């Protein structure tokens, strides 16, 4: 029945909730802008002050959705005809607002502020420890973050799921660790036997070609992202140590990457990854900004778009049929003696490596599973911060047969835990599965994309994704969306098949 059938009190309550939700989102977007600044151009001396700014905003944001008035307004809306159609924007928003209110009720403002402050400082300490290649410079900070995250998890899990599930819920609502374990067991079991047949014996041809100036790398990435569909009138591309996407608000979506002179693949593929996040956010329904309908529902969905553009599209032969001549012109005289086939083989090279962000598509998922296992043990208290480095290195030996060359290539390579993001890593592997499912379904609906890609036309795929994923905003969970778009349950089948198709 929706808004028209609802009584006046409910309509007013809902309108007031929208107003309060938008206000809260505006505050949140100020924090996002601060984060962008912090990770791109802020001088190191600003960190202490920044940690206080972020703590204050986090505290106010939290308090805003904890007010008893919110609960009253939600009860009025929930008892009305606004909820009749569960997929209407009103019903979706009210459900998600209630979820957030329940979550905030369980947390003290002091804890929320302390987490924001500590994580800001911990990220800074993490970067210093990375520079020094010394995990034990960071370990005391990880201890502090972990202590706070355990308090948060325990408070959230009260009478509900396990502590780790409570953290996972922030990124992938409704999904439990036990379900992920089943999916990952199936995926891991299928991937491990594929590594050897797919392992490439040819040397990494691309790194033999000498340094490529960062300016040329940047021009190539700007060209590629623009051709694919990133709108630079409503977005930016900057550089940062750890690539990320900051969605400041409608009309201002910022992506970053990290250019390395000795190997262009780092900046380029990280850039395509963030492009995927950026395309999603640029296409979210503006009319719903500041409400759950105007935001992606799950990080697994968001990561699926990052991984889709980075890998499924960005490492495809037809993608490079179009972009390789452009790359050659930009990077000349480098790559003059490299053929298209050799180049595409090199960017698809499968070989176990120490770094997640540099990993090939097949072994990447094993990197995720290692982190999923370690972070669960950290939260459960079964693994101490002191023993983490050893556990990390042992896992890499066991899973990928690799010995760490130092902490920067090992336990200090990902900043997620320093930022308090426990429960985030599994969304990358979920994203890989979803990306494979969506791409397969898009080609089933529209036919093969390769002829268009080879001409630099990505609009068919982008439009399909806009309609099936981006404009839906927060309407569906990842499982519901995958089913609606592909007719199949979320799972590893399509991803595994895409790898098997490559094996000799
Ligand atoms: Zn991502």
Estimated radius of gyration = 23 Å
Which structural class do you get from the secondary structure elements?
mainly alpha
In order across it, which strands form the biggest sheet?
Answer: 1-3-2
Ligand list = zinc ion
Helix content: 55-70%
Number of DSSP-assigned strands: 3
Number of helices: 21
Tell me, briefly, the overall form.
Answer: globular
Low-confidence runs (pLDDT<50, min 5 residues)?
none
Strand content: under 5%
Mean pLDDT: 94
- How far apart the termini lie comes to 56 Å
Q: Main beta sheet, described?
A: 3 strands, mixed
Protein described:
The structure is a single chain. By secondary structure, this protein is mostly helical. Helices cover 64% and strands 3% of the residues. The termini are far apart. The structure holds zinc ion. Zinc ion binds at residues 273, 277, 303, 306.
List its traits.
single chain; 504 residues; mainly alpha; three-stranded mixed beta sheet; 3 strands; binds zinc ion
């Amino acid at each position: 029945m929706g808004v028209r059938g609802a009584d006046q009190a409910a309509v007013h309550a809902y309108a007031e909730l929208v107003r309060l939700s938008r206000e809260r989102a505006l505050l949140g977007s100020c924090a996002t802008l601060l984060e962008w600044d912090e990770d791109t151009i802020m001088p190191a001396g600003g960190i202490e002050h920044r940690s206080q700014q972020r703590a204050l905003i986090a505290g106010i944001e939290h308090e805003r959705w904890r007010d008893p008035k919110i609960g009253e307004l939600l009860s009025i809306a929930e008892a009305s005809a606004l909820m009749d159609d569960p997929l209407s924007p009103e019903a979706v928003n009210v459900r998600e607002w209630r979820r957030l209110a329940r979550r905030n009720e369980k947390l003290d403002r002091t804890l929320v502020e302390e987490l924001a402050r500590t994580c800001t400082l911990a990220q800074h300490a993490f970067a210093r420890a990375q520079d020094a290649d010394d995990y034990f410079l960071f370990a005391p900070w990880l201890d502090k973050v972990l202590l706070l995250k355990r308090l948060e998890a325990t408070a959230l899990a009260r009478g509900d799921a396990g502590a780790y599930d409570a953290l996972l819920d922030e990124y992938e609502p409704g999904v439990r660790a036990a379900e992920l374990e089943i999916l990952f067991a199936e995926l891991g079991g299928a991937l491990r036997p594929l590594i050897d047949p797919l392992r490439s014996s040819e040397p990494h041809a691309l790194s033999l070609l000498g340094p490529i100036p960062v300016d040329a790398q940047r021009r190539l990435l700007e060209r590629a992202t623009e051709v694919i569909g990133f709108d630079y009138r409503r977005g930016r591309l900057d550089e940062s140590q750890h690539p990320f996407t900051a969605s400041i608000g409608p009309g201002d979506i910022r992506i970053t990457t990290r250019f390395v002179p000795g190997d262009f693949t780092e900046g380029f593929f990280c850039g395509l990854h963030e492009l995927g996040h950026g395309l999603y956010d640029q296409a979210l329904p503006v009319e719903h900004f500041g409400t759950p309908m105007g935001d992606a529902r799950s990080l697994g969905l968001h990561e699926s778009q990052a991984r889709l553009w980075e890998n499924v599209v960005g490492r495809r032969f037809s993608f490079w049929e179009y972009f390789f001549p452009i790359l050659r012109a930009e990077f000349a005289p480098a790559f003059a003696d490299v053929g298209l086939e050799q180049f595409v083989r090199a960017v698809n090279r499968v070989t176990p490596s120490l770094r997640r962000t540099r990993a090939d598509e097949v072994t990447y998922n094993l990197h995720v599973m290692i982190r999923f296992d370690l972070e669960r043990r950290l939260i459960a208290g079964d693994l101490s911060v002191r023993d983490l480095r050893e556990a990390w290195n042992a896992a890499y030996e066991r899973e990928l047969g690799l010995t760490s060359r130092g902490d920067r290539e090992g336990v200090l390579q990902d900043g997620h835990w320093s930022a308090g993001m426990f429960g985030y890593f599994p969304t990358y592997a979920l994203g890989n599965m979803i990306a494979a499912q969506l791409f397969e379904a898009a080609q089933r609906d529209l036919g093969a994309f390769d002829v268009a890609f080879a001409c630099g036309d990505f609009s068919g795929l982008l439009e399909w994704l806009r309609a099936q994923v981006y404009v839906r905003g927060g309407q569906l969970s990842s499982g519901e969306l995958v089913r609606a778009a592909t007719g199949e349950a979320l799972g590893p089948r399509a991803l595994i098949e895409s790898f098997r198709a490559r094996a000799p």
